[in-house]
Amino acid sequence: MSPDAIAEKGLHGVMPLPEGISKEQKERYAAFEVAVRDFLSGKSPHTEESIRELVDTINSDANYIAVFGNALNSALNEAPDDRCDEIAAEAKEILLNREFSHKIWFKPPHVLNYDRFGRKVTCSLEKEYSMLETFYAIDPEHVAKPTTMLFNSLTGSIAGYLMEYVEGVPLSKWVPRDDLQAMDVAHQIISFTKKLQKRGLAHLDLQENNIMVTRNGVIKVIDPYGVVEVDGKPAHEDNNNNKDFWETALRNDREYAAGHCFSIIASMLTEEDVRRSEKLHEDTSALQGNGAPKEASAYLLTEIRELRAQESAAQNRKEEAFRKFMDEEGIADWL
Fold it and tell me: Exposed, middle or buried, 271 (CB in 10 Å: 0-12/13-18/19+)?
C-alpha cells in the first residue's frame, strides 16, 4: 500500500490515530510507516542508521507509538512465519536505548507453559496483554501502560505487544532515597495489591523483578501471567480445582506484597545500625585473627555478644514496625 493510500485511509493497524490530524500530518506519518514497514520487510534501501534518523524526526510526537506499531504490525502480517522473530528483533534493536518523549518496549513471545503452585498452566500473550489492560484500567499510576497488540495474520497468532518503557530499576535493585520514600513505595505496593484483591484478580508473578521503581519513586507493575488453562481446562471455568488455584494465586500475591514491604522496612538502616554492623564485623574479624592476646579475645567475645543482642533487639523493632505498618494498611490478616 502506497503512502497516499495509507494517508487516505487514515493509517491502518490496531492503534488508530486520534481525531483532528491534518492531511499533511497524515501524509508524514504514512510515509514514515511505509519506510519502517519496508525496512523491516527487507524491501527498502534504507539502512538501520537511516531508519533511526527517520525515527528521530518524530521523536517528540506521542502519535509515534501508533505509527511505529502499525508499521511493525504490517511487516509481521506480510512476513513468512520463519521471519517474524527476526523482524521483531530488528524492530526492538531500532528502539533500543532510544530517548523518546514517549518510550515503548517490544515484548516478544515467551514460553507459554509453566508449573505454578503444583499445577500445569498454559499462558498466552493475548491474555497477558488483556490482563495488563485490566490492571492499567484499575490502577493507571502503578501499571506500565500497554499500547499495541501485534498479530501475525499468516499464523493467526499473537506476535507480541508494545508497552510503556519504564525509566527505572526493578525493586530488587532499588535503593530508597530516605525512609519516607521507602515507606511510600511500600504503601504503593500494598495499594496496588489491595485493588486487585478487591476484584478477585491475581498477578500470579508479583516478584520483585516485575515491580519497577521510577526515578521519582513510583512503582510500575509489569508482566502478569496471562493464564488461559489450568491442568488443560479453561482457567476461569467454575470448578473446585480452579477455585483452589485462584485462591492460592490471590494468597501468593498477598504474600509477595507483604514480603516486599518487610524487606523495604527492614532495610531502613539508622546510623546506629550501620555503626553496630561495622563494629560487629570488625570485632569478629579480629577474634578470628591469629595471635590475639587471651584478655583481648575475652573482651571481644563479650562485646560481640552484646552487639548481637543489640542487633536482635533492632530486628525485633523492625518486625514491630512492619506489623504496625500492616495494621495501619488494614491488612494484618495477610501475615
Answer: exposed
Give CA angle at 261 (257, 267), nearest 5°.
145
Which one of 51, 86, 102 terminates a domain?
Answer: 102
Q: Establish if 7 belongs to a structural domain.
A: yes
Distances from the Cα of 243 to the Cα of 80, 194, 271, angstroms: 41, 19, 48
Q: What sections of the chain are H helices per DSSP?
A: 3-9, 23-41, 48-56, 64-78, 84-95, 125-138, 179-198, 240-266, 271-288, 294-328
Q: Are 157 and 233 in contact (CB under 8 A)?
A: no
* Predicted pLDDT at 216: 93
- Write down the residue that cell numbers 533492632 correspond to: 314
* Structural domains in the chain (count): 2
> What is the C-alpha to C-alpha distance for residues 100 and 95, in angstroms, rounded to an integer?
9
Q: Which of the listed residues 84, 102, 120 is the one where a domain comes to its end?
A: 102
C-beta of residue 158 within 8 angstroms of C-beta of residue 108: no
Sign of CA dihedral 290, 295, 298, 300: negative
Task: Look at residue 219 and tell me if it is in a domain.
Answer: no
Domain hosting residue 30, numbered range:
3-102
Task: Check whether 202 has a pLDDT greater than 60.
Answer: yes
Identify whether 305 is part of a domain: yes
Residues written for the chain: 335
In a domain, 240, yes or no: no
The whole-model pTM stands at: 0.70
pLDDT per residue as tens digits for the range 48-61: 788 777 777 665 56
pLDDT digits (tens, 9 = 90+) for 234-250: 987 677 778 899 999 99
